Amino acid sequence: MNYPRLSGILAHITSLPSPYGIGDIGNASYNFIDFLDDCDQSYWQFLPTGPTNDVFDFSPYMSTSAFAGSALLISPDLLYKKGLINRKSFANHPEFSPYIADYSATNHFKNQLLREAFLNFVPENDNTYNLFIENSDWLNDYAVFMTLKELFNKSAWFTWPWELATRQKDALRQIQDLHKEKVNYYKFEQFIFFEQWKELKKYAKKHSISLFGDLPIYVGYDSVDVWAHQNIFELDRKTLQPTHVSGVPPDYFSTTGQRWGNPLYDWHNPDTEVHNALNDWWLRRIDHIFTQVDMVRIDHFRGFESYWSIPEKNKTAVDGQWRKGPGLDFFAAISEKLGALNIVAEDLGIITPEVTALRENLGFPGMKVLQFAFDGDPDNPFLPHNYTSPHSVVYTGTHDNDTTLGWYLSDKLNNNTRNAVKKMVNGALHDNKAINSDLIYLAQSSVSFLCIFPLQDVLGFGNDCKTNSPGVPTGNWRWRCANNFLTGEVAQSLKASTRLFGRGRKQKPLTATGDDNSTTKY
């Protein structure tokens, strides 16, 4: 197969510059697509976009829904443009920091705007609204779930009255009748999110930028997915508690492993109805995300071959066991219905030959992370000279890593390793400032068909700008990029190295010196 050589930037939407507390899917995203275009990049990778909450520190990997969009990402500017709020409502917003995401304050501010927009919205005047309601088979469950969350002061679904926790029809019908306005509000909220997303996707396509999404393998315990589909998860039917939960054994990131706490899918249930329901839910989930994005990274792909099962009572992930996942047959059934799947497999951590064989049989590219390459082993598979095929995506680091500069200066490396990194790129041994550019250069020169760089590495930022520290429960997902950092100079520098290695969309013959005197302003 002839793979095009391309590259892109990893930046979660909340990290983008915006006056409204966090980045959103309005002007913040449109401006970033313009920046990608000027850098001659082809892909924008971001983290999951589902609803988040303060219980899990607004982690995008612990969402309340696998299908819904986060109201925090809705753009006030586009609400105003649609005539749903007045200018005064969002012009007098709090003075948010341009460097640190303030989710709680943003949530309060945007909730007020969305309530106003709901009161001004006339469904009869918008033909697309009824179409959205009819074509979103997950929506009613989500709206009722969020209504109950509101009625029970955000408490978890498994603490609700038994008839509601177990979804008894009469009880649910009564809630929908008594609280119709609340249910309709949450349907409206999702309509707005997906209308704004649809326009964003059109804009990205117009600029030839592919949207690269992220699909966590697991869903949160306190989510509409578990509440509405209790039969497909490993739950104790008498207590509604998980019997086993997700995680990974001790690894690079943690000596006690990571106990994520998500309930596990009931892959081993012999009941045909459960098996069919589980496959159907996954089919709809994958189909749904591909309406939003062009490519998807499946987080913790190895869980489809085998997954770490931790007894719920255990406080750490040390004492668990590997159990077989659904494997090749599962994806064969999905692709039979949906066709070829443009999926990247996150195959990091403890990867067995069986996991590699599954990925290769499916034809999914895997991931190469340069920060994992320098352990002194010349045969390390993350070293670019050991890549045997273009069928991979190479990263300088991921959202779970230190920034490249932070990693290079940290105590995780000694001087011998730092020198080895510099020698690999034929760089000056004592020039620490350029290390981010060095690893971008190394990634772009590799045979991998796609290379992705966290925005922090493009900008050369340290660990104070890190996105996430695995195993640390608070203080993550806070970094924001101020607008003044996305300069024409940065764009020109990345464009030059992108074109040098034949990864540009707008590739032109280089001059003898490789100069490009065009300028970009923001």
Molecular structure report:
The protein is α/β, with parallel strands linked by helices and 522 residues long. The chain has a domain of 137 residues. An eight-stranded parallel sheet has the order 9-6-3-2-1-12-11-10. Strands 5-4-7-8 form a four-stranded antiparallel sheet, with no helix packed on it. Helix 1 links the parallel strand 1 and strand 2. Helix 6 crosses helix 9 and helix 11 packs across helix 12. The longest helix is centred in the middle third of the chain and has 27 residues. It is globular and about 70 Å long. The C terminus is likely disordered.
Name its key features.
522 residues; alpha/beta; 8-stranded parallel beta sheet; 4-stranded antiparallel beta sheet; 37% helix; disordered C terminus
Short description:
With 522 residues, this protein is of the alpha/beta class. It is built from 18 helices and twelve strands.
Indicate the radius of gyration in whole angstroms. 23 Å
Number of helices: 18
Largest sheet: 8 strands, parallel
The helix/strand series, from N terminus to C terminus, equals EHEHHHHHHHHEHEEHEEEHEHEEHHHEHH
Provide the helix percentage: 25-40%
- Spatial separation of the terminal alpha carbons: 39 Å
State the low-pLDDT regions, or none. Answer: 508-522
Mean pLDDT: 93
- Give the overall form: globular
How much of the polypeptide forms β-strand, as a percent range?
5-15%
The tally of beta strands, per DSSP, is 12
Structural class of the helices, strands and pairings?
Answer: alpha/beta
Strand order of the largest sheet: 9-6-3-2-1-12-11-10
